[in-house]
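in:
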């Protein structure tokens, strides 16, 4: 369910060992006197997916404190791809794996045990990217669905000056790489929609594209037979920022539950203009000019042009409160579909459900226990250089290949020398 998560927390007062360790593993050399932040990239020890670690310097009460922000592509880092996902029901498994992976990352950049414990207890969740697919009958139907989503977003963008409209901007693209949409919300959240196979086939491979469409060598042959089913799927991604997460009750990692995360998703969904309205409450409009305005609007009159501005503004809010249409939305009046129906089709509860036979390909109740076990083994390896015992020699060599490569790439010389 979670495609990416960003967390941020205090490391401690700026210390010489922080700079030395980060300078050692970072692609960018930096100066303690001049640089306010530096970013390093490390590969997941399980799959090779890239994890981004940023060290930030902040002045607090005259002291220079170092903060660490970590961006993890959760699915890619744990299972080796983000082409398919289970739902909110596996969130607790994802979080168990994530906490262990965070410990390994923090150890690798030089944190000691008490610093890691403090980090995990106080890590603020800055962004969560939630993903699901909407299934259609064919690739042609999927493309038509995307065009309807584009039209809906552009119609809202035309009304973005209104305070009660949540959309700030909409950027639809129709290129050789496929059709995609990025919607920016006034709340600081985002919504993306595209077809996964189309963008994976793109010849333009930026660093961002490589992150978003990463597939490990071990998973390529396993998931390839299942990729054709995605041709008829529209991929929906909600990126909920810190303000929305806080509103939903999510401040720290321990606050993330299926209920709080779904609350955050619904909040973003409403900002996209997809909140479901009930039947029109005519009783609420009786005795007001709003009922007359609504009748004129439904008869085809352009009430924005024919009625005074103050009346349009007043009646519009009354009609919306009674679950009626937006009389000021000229663009949406031209749409050949109802936005409420589109939102109902795209919403998370109507998502494409992962078939039972494919749950072994994603982070789920079937795969998570093995991932957790290996992360525990890897944690002991990173901390103390302990190599677990294996009955199967091939399994042992595969494990050593992954973790020795990680130790070497992150320049964990003492561990590498000990083994």
């Amino acid at each position: 369910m979670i495609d990416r998560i960003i967390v941020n927390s205090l490391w401690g007062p700026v210390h010489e060992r922080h700079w030395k360790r980060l300078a050692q593993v970072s692609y960018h050399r930096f100066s303690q006197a001049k640089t306010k932040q530096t970013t390093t990239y490390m590969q997941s020890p399980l799959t090779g997916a890239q994890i981004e670690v940023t060290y930030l310097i902040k002045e607090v009460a005259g002291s220079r404190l170092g903060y660490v922000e970590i961006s993890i592509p959760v699915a890619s880092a744990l299972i080796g791809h983000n082409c398919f996902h289970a739902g909110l029901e596996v969130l607790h498994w994802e979080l168990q794996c994530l906490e262990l992976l965070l410990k390994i990352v923090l150890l690798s950049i030089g944190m000691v045990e008490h610093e890691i414990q403090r980090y995990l207890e106080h890590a603020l969740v800055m962004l969560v990217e939630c993903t699901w697919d909407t299934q259609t009958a064919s690739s042609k139907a999927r493309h038509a669905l995307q065009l309807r989503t584009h039209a809906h977003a552009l119609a809202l963008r035309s009304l973005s000056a209104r305070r009660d409209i949540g959309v700030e901007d909409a950027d639809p693209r129709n290129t050789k790489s496929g059709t995609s949409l990025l919607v920016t919300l006034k709340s600081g959240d985002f919504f993306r929609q595209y077809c996964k196979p189309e963008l994976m086939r793109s010849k333009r491979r930026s660093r961002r594209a490589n992150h978003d469409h990463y597939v490990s060598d071990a998973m390529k042959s396993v998931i390839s037979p299942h990729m054709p089913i995605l041709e008829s799927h529209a991929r929906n991604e909600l990126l909920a920022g810190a303000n929305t997460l806080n509103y939903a009750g999510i401040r720290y990692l321990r606050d993330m539950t299926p209920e709080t995360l779904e609350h955050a998703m619904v909040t973003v969904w409403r900002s996209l203009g997809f909140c479901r309205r009930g039947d029109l409450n005519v009783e609420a409009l009786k005795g007001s000019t709003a009922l007359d305005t609504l009748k004129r609007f439904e008869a085809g009159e352009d009430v924005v042009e024919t009625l005074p501005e103050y009346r349009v503004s007043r009646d519009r809010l009354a009609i919306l409160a009674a679950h009626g249409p937006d009389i000021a939305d000229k663009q949406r009046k031209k749409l050949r579909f109802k936005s409420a129906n589109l939102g109902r089709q795209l919403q998370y509860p109507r998502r494409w459900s992962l078939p039972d036979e494919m749950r072994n390909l994603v982070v789920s109740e079937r795969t998570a226990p093995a991932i957790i076990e290996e992360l525990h083994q890897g944690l002991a390896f990173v901390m103390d250089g302990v190599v677990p015992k294996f009955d199967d020699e091939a399994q042992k060599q595969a494990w050593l290949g992954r973790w020795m490569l990680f130790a070497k790439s992150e320049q964990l010389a003492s561990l590498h020398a000990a083994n």
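note: The longest helix spans residues 139-157.
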